[in-house]
Amino acid sequence: MSTYDASFRVWRGDAEGGELRDFTVEVNDGEVVLDIVHRLQATQASDLAVRWNCKAGKCGSCSAEINGRPRLLCMTRMSTFDPSETITITPLRAFPVVRDLVTDVSFNYRKAREVPAFVPPEGVPAGAYRMQQIDVERSQEFRKCIECFLCQDTCHVVRDHEENKVAFAGPRFLMRVAELDMHPLDAAAEAGLDRKRTAQDEHGLGHCNITKCCTEVCPEGIKITDNALIPLKERAVDRKYDPLVWLGSRIRRR
Ligand code: SF4
Ligand code: F3S
Ligand code: FES
């Protein structure tokens, strides 16, 4: 088993401010960055705050930025980096810092609450829902989301623009709107809820200019842009230029 000492720069601080501190930590074969953070806690910085839970890439808790890229600490192998490289670990930039590597991600829970839930079809008892396999597979991809919020952190619409957070739900929640809008059993329209209109007017779909950075950082490999956001944009545009929808809105305006 090979062992070496690696150089790390870790952000220490709180909501008032902080700085990068230098550490040298032992690295062993097969380790991930979270192992190093734990060794750092055990040997040199017992009060270093980090959020984690499963250490298996499934709980979405250990999100942070490694050399400026949003990543899961538990799924980033140390073998990704050259042993001579200094590895910088910082908290998620788009969310307020609580302490050290822990950020306040409650923005995402507020956005989650703004998306109306699945509306069950009337007259179909639970257990009797039937869907085509192709529709099951389409939404299954979106259901793999572990809510790590790396996509929310990386999207340039909010990353450096705090002011956009009010109007923009972010890729994770626009994907949720897309999933529900594609759901063949969702009866939102019958209940008077137009998910395509709310995607534009309430969740800020128009802010997304399909840069695909969200897709690039998703640890579940969900094709957020190609399979959720672009189809949702197409459906919203279809609705806007549908002559019947246009006529209906003109009549309603009178
Ligand atoms: Fe994380 Fe991917 Fe879900 Fe975004 S879509 S929260 S990157 S798992
Ligand atoms: Fe942002 Fe993803 Fe769109 S990064 S701009 S939500 S494609
Ligand atoms: Fe659960 Fe990293 S600790 S995803």
Automatic annotation (TrEMBL):
InterPro entries: 2Fe-2S_ferredoxin-like_sf, 2Fe-2S_ferredoxin-type, 2Fe2S_fd_BS, 4Fe4S_Fe-S-bd, Beta-grasp_dom_sf, Helical_ferredxn, SDH/FRD_Iron-Sulfur, Succ_DH/fum_Rdtase_Fe-S
Family: Belongs to the succinate dehydrogenase/fumarate reductase iron-sulfur protein family.
Signal sequence range: none
Keyword Hydrolase appears in the UniProt entry: no
Lineage: Bacteria, Bacillati, Actinomycetota, Actinomycetes, Kitasatosporales
Start and end residues of each 2Fe-2S ferredoxin-type domain: 6-93
Keyword Ion transport: no
A Pfam family: Fer4_8
Domain of life (superkingdom): Bacteria
PANTHER family named in the record: SUCCINATE DEHYDROGENASE [UBIQUINONE] IRON-SULFUR SUBUNIT, MITOCHONDRIAL, SUCCINATE DEHYDROGENASE IRON-SULFUR PROTEIN
Cofactor entry: [4Fe-4S] cluster; [2Fe-2S] cluster; [3Fe-4S] cluster
Name by which UniProt lists this protein: Succinate dehydrogenase/fumarate reductase iron-sulfur subunit
Pathway connected to this protein: Carbohydrate metabolism; tricarboxylic acid cycle
Keywords: 2Fe-2S, 4Fe-4S, Iron, Iron-sulfur, Metal-binding, Oxidoreductase
